[in-house]
Amino acid sequence: LDLGFALANTGAIAQQSVAGATQTGTHGTGRELGNMATQLVSLTLVLPNATVVTASRSENRRIFDAARVGLGALGIVVEVGLKVRKKFKLRRTTVAYNLDELLPALPSLSERYPRLQWYFTPYTNNATLLLREAVDIGTEITGCWPGDLAGLAASAQGGNTSCVDWSFKALCHEADDATLYTEMEYFVPVEKSMAFFQEFREFQESVREEIDCTEATKCALFTGMRYAKQDDIYLSPMFGQDIGVISMIVLGTPTQSGPPDVVSAFDKGLEQIAKKYSGRPHWGKLHFARRADLEPLYPRFQDFQAVREELDPNGMFLNDYLWRVLYDE
Known about the structure:
By secondary structure, the protein is α+β, with helices and mostly antiparallel strands. It contains ten helices and 13 strands. The radius of gyration is 20 Å and the shape is globular.
């Protein structure tokens, strides 16, 4: 910001590294905006043999296409080049909605507001439309920080809010959330996203009697939808398709995440339904997928494997998670 530049888009939380955010395909929202890895124009890796390699669209292109969402499996990211734009301001607005009124309005709202996202509180009709609109650079800043996920969840109970700030403050929270939570996200082709959501909502209703999640049990629920543009990165969840992504969050307290039995009930259902829609999980959030589940979803999966085995033939950077998603049948 001090140099007069900004990223076009960010994830939801400011306190994360560029390397970690890009390696996992972390995203914000915007039907014409890609995930954070699409803003990389180059990156430099330290390989297991201490070799340093730089990759871009014009240099080591195979490595570039694999390593932008590399899961930490290809090497240590020590330097990146980022595409930036002139700094800009956004107005962030939350609008309270009845969910059953919001859903049919989404196609027209999406056309009007390209940075749209929305969320609701399960077992209620309380929904919130979250908008971010560009404003003139001279517009007075009213301040979008502080704010956290618990605050967003509370806003779904009703009431509209609005603030103006520099883009990054309107796009993400200034700190990780004070309330601990467990989250699963699944990405599906945008044209299937509403059917995916409706089926997951029906599933939520089907397990209502099993769910003990109230203020008394120190538990709260959040379900949201964001959008992103397709890209050409081998293991990006947006590879080859514009997507809608459902987040299922179970919130707990500042010292304990949401109850494991509640997390398990929702996440197993979400993951099972996602398979019907060729859903891809967020690499940096809870999921149970293995290579056998993931390889059919990524046309360049084997190309990623080839690059990984070339750069790290002895598997120095593999851990239990990476073994599961890259090799375990």
